[in-house]
Design goal:
Elements (H helix, E strand, L loop, with lengths): L3 E3 L7 E4 L3 E7 L5 E7 L8 E4 L2 E3 L2 E7 L6 E7 L2 E2 L4 E2 L14 E2 L33 E3 L22 E4 L19 H4 L2 H10 L3 E4 L9 H4 L29 H15 L3 E6 L16 H9 L2 E2 L2 E5 L14 H16 L5 E4 L2 H4 L11 H8 L7 E4 L19 E3 L1 H12 L5 H8 L3 H4 L9 E4 L8 H4 L35 H20 L3 E5 L30 H19 L21 E3 L2 E3 L2 E4 L19 E5 L2 E4 L6 E4 L3 E6 L5 E4 L7 E8 L13 E2 L2 E4 L3 E9 L1
Parallel strand pairs: 13-14, 13-22, 14-15, 15-18, 18-19, 19-20, 20-21, 21-22
Antiparallel strand pairs: 1-7, 2-3, 3-7, 4-5, 4-8, 6-7, 8-12, 9-10, 11-12, 16-17, 23-24, 25-26, 26-29, 27-28, 29-34, 30-33, 31-32, 31-34
Helix pairs in contact: 9-10, 13-14
Amino acid sequence: MAETILPGKPYPQGATWDGVGVNFSLYSEGATGVELCLFPGLGTAEAKVIQLRECSGHIWHCYVAGIQPGQLYGYRVHGPYEPERGMRFNPAKISIDPYTKALTGRVDWNAPVFGYELGNPDGDLKRDDQDDSAAVPKGVVVSSFFDWENDRPPLTPLHDSVIYEVHVKGISAAHPDIPEGIRGTYAAMAHPAVVEHLKSLGVTAVELMPVHAFLDDKILLDKSLKNYWGYNSINFFAPEARYSSSGDSGGQIGEFKNMVKQLHRAGMEVILDVVYNHTAEGNHLGPSLSLKNIDNSTYYRLVADQQRYYMDYTGTGNTLNVRHPQVLKLIMDSLRYWVTEMHVDGFRFDLAAALARELHEVDRLSAFFDIINQDPVISQVKLIAEPWDVGEGGYQVGNFPPVWAEWNGRYRDAARRYWKGDEGQLAELGYRLTGSSDLYQRDGRHPTASVNFITAHDGFTLQDLVSYDGKHNEANLEDNRDGTNDNHSWNHGAEGPTEDPAILELRERQKRNLISTLLLSQGIPMICGGDEIGRTQRGNNNAYCQDNELSWFDWNLDDARKAFLEFTRVMIDLRKSHPNLHRRKFFQDRRIDPEAPDREVDGKTEIDIQWLRTDGKEMAQEEWHTGWVRCIGLKLNGQTLDDVNGVGELIRDDTFLILLNPHHEPVRFTLPGPRDGTAWEVLIDTACKTSPASSKPRRLRKTYQLIPRSLAVLREGAL
């Protein structure tokens, strides 16, 4: 090589190509020396080694002229190997640059990728000096150029959003209309077959399960399984190359960008599910691939008086040390990169409570939140928290700062319990249907703080939720011990596949009840990808290791699955067409505030919402907590002020009546009197497979009967 080596600069960190050469920069506070290794290719230990002689504020750096995109590289970091003091430097092990923008190659678990001697009676206390450079993924020098063609983010308001959680590979791996060579990739996500499905469904954003570069766990590979979900990050900048049809030498970046561009053109945002709470390096017995070698005590939370061990708030063996300024910088630089360079529109933070832990407590005013709230880039995109971790006090639904939305686990639980017919659910359901004001209103947030969901990747699919009484995770080879027991009998008369038409229809109706409830609730609805086409995992509620047909979408739709797809489209369209069904602010709800004054709209006294008994009268306060009351009506007035303080946007929309019957017997509702010259028109009845709007409208004035376990939506219209 004819490279010229210059001192370079500490910033930006990572490998930055400027058209002439590359600036390399790596943070390590405890290192005594750092070597840059330039590799001619994968699978080789041969490398050109460059000693980094410049160190500015713990950042080691140099500039190498003459290097071009495509160059492979890694680091050897020298320093003490003293696990009892939290130091695990091992220059025999190649370290992946935390800031690399692309990774090539896979970990060879049969090679010496552990920093300590395996099988030694002292465990991890004795350093292993075998070289592993041929067995570790390498960073790739890349060019940032991409023709975005005037790409613009859709900027969909939160209250107009409908989120679709989806796995990049799962949606297209078995799609017959997508060329076989690109199935399961970013290119397939950008293919018209996928884009048109999502666009016709009506979703406004795709929430992609993890696309940061991640590893397959050795324990899974030994069982001939894989880490399918991807919650095992090894780098926070590089897009996972297994989803690239363009190879892993940098082409994955352009392919990802093109996917974003195509989704934006179709009016859909891209939200990333990001895992900044831990890495794939595991606990003290895990591999040494990146941060462990580079500066273990900087990047990881260690047990204060036993620094050999890691604090584990994530259930994965380690927790990132977000208290340290460099770790905060790493996360923030990653977030900005994905927004500014990759054009994504928001993030869902996995186990976000772990990021909020300053000491042991979850602190809503932690440095992590402070730095995000003041950032001019990150504070402007959609921020969604999974508001829990596995540590003590980790369940923090309702406790995140105002700029954040949250996965609302209480919504999921209330909706499921109600439609199973559990007693005593009315008060809880009332709050969840109306945006969970009990959780979010006190600190000035709006219904859009609540991301409502019935199902998600972690748990049963919607089809399995109504088809199985318990988990069936035998394919995970853990004797069905993994996963949560988050389901109970739905009293449908059979479990799993059946040919009984009555049971099949009941299951389909319960699916219609649940998806209707989700899309009629205030807040942000999130649909689990594939639920709209009846995707089943055959009762597996923890398919994290099932990279096969068990997890992939089956696009061979029978009549029932086609009907449910059409029903879901109708419900999404109904929601999006009516501001009364996705308000920006909370209702003036007399159930929540019995002393709330009436308001005048156009000279008439109006209230936002009325809760009705089956006899058409308003619910009394004491009735909300009586277990025997299950069926309820919800009237949404069409001309109200969309503001909790009575000053705001005037909603001029239809008046709706939502009737819910989770009981096993039919129920006849007495309808509230419509205004003069109007009648109630039936828009939706989950007793029907599709919307009755396709036939002649049914107009009612007095009563309406719901069959067992069904829901109806009525609209006030002219006679």
